[in-house]
Every structure is written in structure tokens, then in C-alpha cells.
Design a protein that fits this description.
Number of strands of chain A: 5
CATH superfamily of the largest domain in chain A: Beta-grasp domain
Number of strands of chain B: 29
Shape of chain B: globular
Order of helices and strands of chain A: EEHEEEHHHH
CATH architecture of the largest domain in chain A: Roll
Structural class of chain B: alpha+beta
Structural class of chain A: alpha+beta
CATH architecture of the largest domain in chain B: 2-Layer Sandwich
Radius of gyration of chain A: 17 Å
CATH superfamily of the largest domain in chain B: Aldehyde oxidase/xanthine dehydrogenase, molybdopterin binding domain
Helix content of chain B: 25-40%
Distance between the termini of chain A: 65 Å
Distance between the termini of chain B: 57 Å
CATH topology of the largest domain in chain A: Ubiquitin-like (UB roll)
Oligomer: heterodimer
Shape of chain A: globular
Number of domains of chain A: 2
Largest sheet of chain B: 7 strands, mixed
Number of helices of chain B: 20
Strand content of chain A: 15-25%
CATH topology of the largest domain in chain B: Aldehyde Oxidoreductase, domain 4
Radius of gyration of chain B: 28 Å
CATH class of the largest domain in chain B: Alpha Beta
Largest sheet of chain A: 5 strands, mixed
CATH class of the largest domain in chain A: Alpha Beta
Strand order of the largest sheet of chain B: 3-5-1-12-9-10-11
Chain lengths: 169, 801
């Protein structure tokens, strides 16, 4: 069989320009994990249902298993590795997850973190119903979601506190 | 004084790593390894007549193709039958690659290795396997009818048949004032962790040694199996369970074909090879559970006391029995729950079908047993016009009857003796939590508004912490860091935190000094595995015992250094000091230095242990029967399981038109003895309840008559999202186990056990007709309503007094 045609794909991942030469069919999830070595993004179903592979594309959540890397040339992607501050301080959502025991095996967690990060970016003071709605596209088999809901509300609270402190300064 | 860690809701030490994308799950390892993919049987029952691989040979990046013919002698043997049992008279297992016959859709036939997974799948789809079709046996009725056989040499499709009897149940029922018969059914479901299986092998060819990473619940047993089949000494095989993305039972099954084939191929090719299961593979080639038909015959008196219970179970074990008959044995024994049956006879047949194998899924046969027993309790209550909790209360084992001997043999081959528990108190608590006694009024009020609501209760006892043993190793480094290891594995239960809490307390050191490793044979080679809610009980106690040995040694070494009697010393905040004179002290890390007499000083702390620095030259530097180093090892091996219990209550509302089932309240009372970390235990309960809800209302494996699994994807297999989950209200009871030093019982599986039973009860209460099959969907409920309206379903006769 003939050699598969490849493409140079460059995009900004977590604020850093990255590139690799890949076939057209390389999924973004595989591009991130296997070509760039960013294995924090997980793959749970490869058909867009479980949400483990959720990353942010220009700030909006997408399923990285449903999009080809080559179609995102020049775009900006944020993965779980890019959620903490440059000095390593965990984001409000990450901190709230640790505080509320919102993860057990941790496999689905990156998808929840990215989804919730985007959700709270649009909504600083969500109701519990809004939170349940926001996370209801992601599967978790360990937690029964109780503590993920709790952590999302806690993260919103942490962000509001930070916003208030900034406003006071 | 260091704050006590045991019992505190300490945040998990695992989390910072997992929250920042620094976890190391199986597919995160071995970047650049060759990728394996499998050609799997598309047929449920067929003979393999030809395999033509020529189409695959010119696929770019192809490295190798293997079929059964290529396997060396030991690998060509049938896969191990892991748990022999005298009642399992016809055990059958498959082959690493199909030999001549396939017995379920998904059975591996050809292994392909290529440069990456995309290319491996390109090659796999070009391989043509020819089959001669055989008639498939799908479902328990077809297996029982035995018109066709799964295995030619297994008559009646019966793998195993077991009867256990205590007293003469049939005579007791015949003589009882009241008798009932129930026919019940439970469908298949599966563990379905978010991460599937995966295997990654790397050899050191010069050393002829293998390191195998596998997403497993037992690394030590995988090591033994792989070493045996590859003809290696176990000392040449290291097996590591890396971060594992959930197990829930399916990953205790081993050795999987892939766990043999991947390291074998890696050795032949002299390159690293990795296989990561995809979601469809997980549905059709790992394992399922739950499927059973049951008939219960019960005799009871005017007050609802059980006089005799006679249960027959038909258990679907799928195509093979590699994990023996553990699941139906557990159903048969744990069915009794918190009750005294009067007399008990239980008989099960374990049946072959041309479907995926059946091995434990969280609860492991208990949800089915609980369903049978609790459906029976509700029927007795209806028959006598008694409140459902009154009948339960009258049959409970009393605290003063503990330890209670059921005179049966449990799944571990040991007697079924409940060690402890206050069951009437658990019942009192669940009634209070859900407001049981006030519900009739609430229900009447709802009814007046045209709403259908119902309440259900279900009770269980769970044997946890089965043997034979687990071990722990605790080492204090000269830096003061404490390294803890235990052989069993972790899949999200927070073992690194819980075991560190235990050791921190035992040694009087801060949690931050303690690091825990699990499931790595390089660190601890003797272990059984993580299943049966056993990790906290088994390894928790083992690391506690190991830490106590370290503590004893630390006091001894410090006593010699300080020239004081050991009895006058205490270990607090990482310092050994004289009681009452805390100024006379020595740091634990210094004790670690002194515990290892040195000839050479490589740093300042080491100087203190060298030959001209130590004071006492009377005896040998290492006393007789001692070893160098401040470390200790111990094992915990109990005589029997310890029994946790709990009771759940749920309030549901069923839509009068659409038959949608909505959960209004879900309440849990749970007693797993002393809690190491209540936050983690609650998390385990939450997750268990979610799987209970799933098994009652959503999840099933839909096989068609030809043995095709029609819903083998997350598009069609309905796993609950957050939107399907109720808020869970929990109350705890802590009845310590008298069987182990820490007084703990297992908690991992509890939440899932009463799920089907409690929903069946609540839906029945809302609808007024009997629910005998689980799971139940809105369309099934709708159908039942039509049958009921046509007079074809028995009404519930609820005459609350």
C-alpha cells in the first residue's frame, strides 16, 4: 500500500506553539497524547459520548476524539495540563475538586475540569440545577457525581472570592 | 501531639497529580511502543475454517501477524481455570487466540502488531477469517432448554450445580401456615470503567527480564500467570499496575489473552508492544455480570417470621468459566442478608451461553441475592397486611445473637459467620432518615393530586475482606521519609491516602512524610488483589502491623542510643523521646541512620552510624535475630470475612402518562465498622449507589438471538450522567469488627447491592402491581401498566395496619 500522506500541523497548546507531522486522519486526542506527549487528556470511548477527552478550543469545550488535528491548524487548544497557573498553583476548579473529593480514579477528571472551567467562565454564580446541566455531557463511573456538583459550586465560590479581592485592590 | 489521622476526612494525596494531568494510566506509558490490535470473532458460535492474512501483508507499518498456529506450546494451552470448585464439574476456558471454535462475539482470533494503532487496525480489517456457523445459545431459557450446546462435551450447558441446605427447608415450607412462590429475573450489566483494559510490555533482552504494565486489580497474580506461561522465573517478571481508570471487578479477572500475547510478542520482536482496549472491545471481549433467573419458595407464620426458604437460581456464566462460580456462590450465601431464614435450601445451576464471560462486577452476585430476599420480604408483608419494615424487623438477627453462624460455606471456603452489627439500629436509622412512618400520608396527599409516588426499602449484609492475606512493608529512610508498600492494587479508592493515614498514626509522623505504593511487584511481591471490598481491611491492617514492627524497632534502637529502657520511650511527631522528659530525644530519621551500622560515611547523617562513632562495642553491630535498616514487614491473614451491613430507602415518582421514573429521595444507612477516612467512604457509597441506580433503571446488555450485543457503545448502553442521579442522603453506624486490629470492614461494594431491590419495591408501591424483573425502563413500566389494566398482572395487596 502507498505511504499515507502527512501534513504539518502547528497549533498553540496551553500557550505554547507546538507542531508535528501527522496523517489527515489523526484525531486531536491522539495528536495531543501520542504526538505531543500531553497524556493528561484521556480517551474513554472514541465516539464522543463520555467526555473524558474534552479540551478547550479557543476557550470552548470540544470532544478531541471527534475532530482531526489537521483541521485545527493555527488554533489555540487548552488541555488539563494548561489549567494551573504558570507557577503550578492549581486553578479554582482543580482546588475545589481536591477539597470536595470530586474524583476517584481520575480518568474522567480532565474532561470535567475543562468542561467546568469553560462553564464557570460564562457563569460566575450558577445554581445547582445549572451545574448539573453543565456537567451532564460527561460520564464518571466512580463518584456518582455528588461531589463533582459540590466541587463546581465550590469552584464558583472560590472564583467569586478571588474576583471580589481583585475588585477591592 | 500529632493530630490523629485515622477517622479524619483527610484530602487525598493522589489528587494534585491526577488533577493536573500528571497521572500515568496504561495508555499514557510507552510512547513509541509498537501497537497491537485484534481481529475478533463477529459470530457468537462458529468454527474457524480458514484465516487469510495476505491482504494485510502490504499494509504500511505492519510488523507481525499471529494466529493460534503461531503460539508456542504453553501459550497454546487453554487459558487457566482460576478458581476450581468441586461443584464446577465442567469448567471450560478459551484460548489466547481462537483454536478452532469461537464461543462469543469478541473472542480474539488474530493478533496484529504495527507501528501504531491506526496501522494495526488497517491491517486487522484486511485479514479474512472464514467461519462455519454453529447454532448460538443466547439467554438462560435457551441454555436450559439445551436444544443446542455451547460446548459439545458439556451436557445440558451446565457448568456447575451446587446445593447448600441448612435444616429441612422444604419440609418447613410444606408445614408452614403461609406459603408463597416468586419468579424473578435480573438482566446483564457490566463494570464499565472509564478506562478499559490495557497491557504494555518491555523487555530487558540482555537480562532476559520482562516488565509488564497492565490495567489490573491484581499485579502479583498476573505475574505468576505470565511467568508460568512464558516459562520465566517470577523473579524475571515485574508487573506494575499503573494508575488504573476504574475497575469495579472486571479487572480482577486475569490473565486475559492480551496479558499473555503482548509480552510474548514484545519478546519475539525485541521491541516494546502496547495494547489499549477500545470501548467496543471492552463491551464484547472483557466480562459482564448479573444475569440470573430465580425461583423463591418461602414458608412463614402469622407474624411474618421465616420458617423455610427454598431458592433455585439459574446463573448465566457466558461462554467460559475462567473465574469459576464465585458469583453464584455469593448470590446463594449473601441472599440471606440480615435475616434468619428458619431453614434454608439454595440450589444453583451455572449455565453456558454464547455470550461474553461473566465474572464479578461490584456487588458480585449480591445485588441479585438482595433482590430475591427483599422481594420476598415485601411479598410476605403484603400477604399478611403488615408494614414492610415490621416484617423485616421481626426477622433480623439481633445484636446479642452475634457472632451469627449461618452454618453455610462462604465464597472463601470459610464458614458464613457474621462477626458483628446492630441490624435493628440500622433499620431504625433508615426509617428515621427517610421518614418511613410519615410516608403513607405523603403518598395519600400525592395521590389526591393525581401523582404516583412510592417508597421502598432494601437491606443487605456484605461479607468483606476475604483472605487469604495481604502484606505491608514500611521503611523509614534516613531522610525521615516513610515508604509504605502493599501488593494489592488501586483503582481510585484512595489507598495512598488511607494507608498513609494508618501508618502516620502508628509511627507518629506527619502524613506528608508518608508515601504509599500499591500494585507494584518490584516493591511487594506477595499479594492477592483488590476485590470483595477487601483492600482497607486486608492491606489496612497489614500496613498497621508492619508499622507497629517498625515502631518497636525504632524504640529499641533509640533506647540503646539514649541508654534508656524501651518502656520509658514514646514516638511522637517523628521523634523518639523519654516519657515525661521530652528533651531527651532522638529524631526518627536519626534512628533510621543508627539502625543501619555503616563502614562508610557518604553524608553527615551517615557519620553517626560509622564504626568509630557508635558508642557500644560490646555486642555485634547488628544484634542477633535483627536486620539492618529501620523497616518492617507483616501480613494480615484473617480466619474469615468480616460482615458489613446497610439499608437503603428510595422514594420515586412515576409519571402517570409517560411512565418516566423520577427519584425524589435516596437514603443510605451504612455500617462498615471504623471509618479510616469518612470522606473516601462516602465517595465509595455515592459511586456504588450510582451503579445501583444504573442497574435498576438504565443498564442492560441487549443480546439478539444470534448473540450480537446490540448496544456495545456508550451511544446505546445507558450509563447515568449527573442528570440521572439523585442527591444521596447518608447516615453512618460504626460497629467495629472484632476480627481485625483496626476494627474495620469493607466499604467498596456496599452502595450498589440494594439498588435493584429498593427500586423494585418503590416502583411497586407507586404502581400497585408486582415488579419481578430488573432493570426496568419507562417503556417496560408502560407495558406493565397495560398488562395490569388487562388483568394480567397480580396487584399488590397493601393493607397497611
Amino acid at each position: 500500500m502507498s505511504t499515507e500522506q502527512t501534513y504539518d500541523v502547528a497549533m498553540v497548546v496551553n500557550g505554547v506553539p507546538q507542531s508535528a507531522t501527522v496523517p489527515a486522519r489523526r484525531l486531536l486526542s491522539d495528536f495531543l497524547r501520542h504526538d505531543l506527549g500531553l497524556t493528561g487528556t484521556h480517551v474513554g470511548c472514541e465516539h464522543g459520548v463520555c467526555g473524558c477527552c474534552t479540551v478547550l478550543l479557543d476557550g470552548e469545550p470540544i470532544r478531541s476524539c471527534l475532530v482531526f488535528a489537521v483541521s485545527l491548524r493555527g488554533r489555540a487548544v487548552t488541555t488539563v495540563e494548561g489549567l494551573a497557573a504558570a507557577d503550578g498553583t492549581m486553578s479554582a476548579v482543580q482546588q475545589a475538586f481536591a477539597e470536595c473529593h470530586a474524583l476517584q480514579c481520575g480518568f474522567c477528571t480532565p474532561g470535567f475540569l475543562t468542561t467546568i472551567t469553560a462553564f464557570l467562565g460564562d457563569n460566575l454564580d450558577p445554581t445547582e440545577e445549572e451545574v448539573v446541566e453543565a456537567i451532564s455531557g460527561n460520564l464518571c463511573r466512580c463518584t456518582g457525581y455528588q461531589n463533582i456538583v459540590k466541587a463546581t459550586l465550590r469552584a464558583a465560590e472560590l472564583r467569586r472570592t478571588t474576583a471580589r479581592h481583585r475588585a477591592e485592590q | 501531639m500529632t493530630t490523629k489521622m485515622f477517622g479524619a476526612p483527610i484530602r487525598r494525596t493522589e489528587d494534585p497529580r491526577l488533577l493536573t494531568g500528571r497521572g500515568g494510566y496504561l495508555d499514557d506509558l510507552g510512547r513509541g511502543a509498537l501497537a497491537a490490535a485484534f481481529v475478533r470473532s463477529p459470530h457468537a458460535h462458529a468454527r474457524v475454517t480458514d484465516i487469510d492474512v495476505t491482504g494485510a501483508l502490504d499494509v504500511e507499518g505492519l510488523i507481525a501477524v499471529y494466529t493460534y498456529e503461531d503460539l508456542p506450546e504453553r501459550l497454546a494451552e487453554a487459558l487457566p481455570a482460576l478458581i476450581p470448585h468441586p461443584a464446577l464439574h465442567h469448567p471450560r476456558t478459551g484460548y489466547a487466540l481462537a483454536r478452532d471454535e469461537v464461543n462469543h462475539v469478541g473472542e480474539p482470533v488474530v493478533m496484529v502488531v504495527a507501528r501504531d494503532r491506526y496501522l494495526a487496525e488497517d491491517a486487522a480489517e484486511r485479514i479474512v477469517v472464514s467461519y462455519e456457523m454453529l447454532p448460538p445459545v443466547v439467554g438462560i431459557p435457551a441454555a436450559l432448554a439445551a436444544e443446542h450446546l455451547v460446548h459439545d462435551d458439556v451436557p445440558g450447558n451446565v457448568a456447575a450445580h451446587l446445593v447448600q441446605e441448612v435444616g429441612d427447608a422444604r419440609a418447613a415450607i410444606a408445614a408452614a401456615p403461609y406459603r408463597l412462590e416468586l419468579n424473578l429475573a435480573v438482566e446483564r450489566s457490566a463494570s464499565t470503567p472509564m478506562e478499559g483494559r490495557g497491557v504494555y510490555a518491555r523487555w530487558d533482552l540482555a537480562d532476559e527480564s520482562l516488565r509488564l504494565y497492565t490495567s489490573t486489580q491484581t499485579s502479583t497474580s498476573v505475574r505468576a500467570a505470565v511467568a508460568s506461561r512464558l516459562g520465566l522465573s517470577p523473579t524475571k517478571v515485574e508487573v506494575v499496575a499503573p494508575d488504573v481508570g476504574g475497575g469495579f471487578g472486571v479487572k480482577i479477572m486475569h490473565p486475559w489473552p492480551e496479558e499473555f500475547l503482548v509480552p510474548w510478542a514484545a519478546g519475539l520482536l525485541g521491541q516494546e508492544v502496547k495494547w489499549t482496549e477500545d470501548r467496543r472491545e471492552h463491551f464484547i471481549s472483557s466480562a459482564h455480570e448479573r444475569g440470573q433467573l430465580q425461583t423463591v419458595r418461602v414458608g412463614f407464620d402469622d407474624d411474618g417470621h421465616l420458617l423455610g426458604l427454598d431458592v433455585e437460581i439459574w446463573h448465566d456464566n457466558g461462554a467460559y468459566t475462567p473465574y469459576g462460580i464465585i458469583v453464584p456462590i455469593i448470590t446463594a450465601t449473601q441472599l440471606l442478608g440480615p435475616y434468619k431464614p428458619g431453614s434454608y435450601r439454595v440450589e444453583f445451576s451455572s449455565l453456558y451461553t454464547n455470550t461474553v464471560i461473566v465474572t464479578p462486577y461490584r456487588g458480585a452476585g449480591r445485588p441479585q441475592g438482595c433482590f430475591a430476599m427483599e422481594r420476598t420480604m415485601d411479598r410476605i408483608a403484603d400477604e399478611l397486611g403488615l408494614d414492610r419494615t415490621v416484617v423485616r424487623e421481626r426477622n433480623l438477627i439481633r445484636p446479642e445473637e452475634m457472632p451469627y453462624d449461618h452454618q453455610m460455606t462462604f465464597q472463601d471456603g470459610r464458614p458464613l459467620i457474621y462477626d458483628s452489627g446492630d441490624l435493628p439500629e440500622t433499620l431504625r436509622k433508615i426509617k428515621a432518615l427517610v421518614g418511613w412512618d410519615d410516608f403513607a400520608a405523603i403518598q395519600a396527599e400525592a395521590q389526591a393530586q393525581g401523582r404516583k409516588i412510592g417508597i421502598g426499602i432494601a437491606c443487605y449484609v456484605e461479607g468483606t475482606g476475604v483472605g487469604p492475606y495481604e502484606g505491608g512493608h514500611v521503611q523509614v529512610e534516613t531522610s525521615g521519609r516513610v515508604l509504605v508498600s502493599t501488593g494489592l492494587t488501586s483503582q481510585g479508592q484512595g489507598h495512598q491516602t488511607a494507608f498513609a493515614q494508618i501508618v502516620a498514626d502508628e509511627l507518629g509522623v506527619p502524613m506528608s512524610d508518608v508515601t504509599v505504593t500499591t500494585g507494584d511487584t518490584r516493591r511487594f511481591g506477595y499479594a492477592v488483589g483488590t476485590f470483595a471490598s477487601r483492600a482497607a481491611v486486608m492491606s489496612g491492617n497489614a500496613v498497621a502491623l508492619a508499622a507497629r514492627n517498625v515502631r518497636d524497632k525504632a524504640l529499641k534502637v533509640a533506647g540503646e542510643a539514649l541508654e534508656v529502657d524501651v518502656g520509658d520511650l514514646e514516638l511522637v511527631d517523628g521523634v523518639v523521646r523519654v516519657k515525661g522528659s521530652p528533651d531527651v530525644s532522638i529524631e526518627l530519621r536519626t534512628v533510621a541512620v543508627l539502625a543501619n551500622p555503616l563502614r562508610y560515611a557518604f553524608d553527615d547523617s551517615a557519620k553517626r552510624a560509622t564504626q568509630f562513632a557508635v558508642g557500644n562495642t560490646a555486642g555485634p553491630p547488628i544484634p542477633e535475630d535483627e536486620e539492618p535498616g529501620l523497616e518492617g514487614r507483616d501480613f494480615y491473614s484473617p480466619t474469615q470475612s468480616t460482615f458489613a451491613n446497610g439499608m437503603h430507602a428510595v422514594v420515586v415518582e412515576t409519571d402517570p402518562e409517560t411512565a418516566e421514573i423520577k427519584i425524589l429521595r435516596y437514603c443510605v444507612v451504612h455500617d462498615c465498622g471504623n471509618l479510616i477516612n469518612p470522606m473516601i467512604v462516602e465517595g465509595q457509597v455515592h459511586g456504588g449507589v450510582a451503579q445501583g441506580v444504573a442497574g435498576a433503571l438504565y443498564e442492560r446488555m441487549v443480546y439478539d438471538g444470534s448473540g450480537q450485543l446490540l448496544n456495545a457503545s456508550f451511544m446505546d448502553f445507558l450509563m447515568p450522567y449527573a442528570s440521572e442521579m439523585p442527591k444521596i442522603e447518608i447516615d453512618h453506624l460504626e460497629t467495629p469488627s472484632p476480627l481485625n486490629p483496626l476494627g474495620i470492614k469493607g466499604a467498596g461494594e456496599a452502595g450498589v447491592i440494594p439498588g435493584m431491590a429498593v427500586f423494585a419495591a418503590a416502583i411497586e408501591d407507586a404502581e400497585g402491581f408486582r415488579i419481578t424483573q430488573m432493570p426496568i425502563s419507562p417503556s417496560e413500566l408502560f407495558h406493565l401498566r397495560q398488562l395490569f389494566a388487562a388483568g394480567e398482572l397480580e396487584p399488590v395487596d397493601r393493607r397497611h395496619t
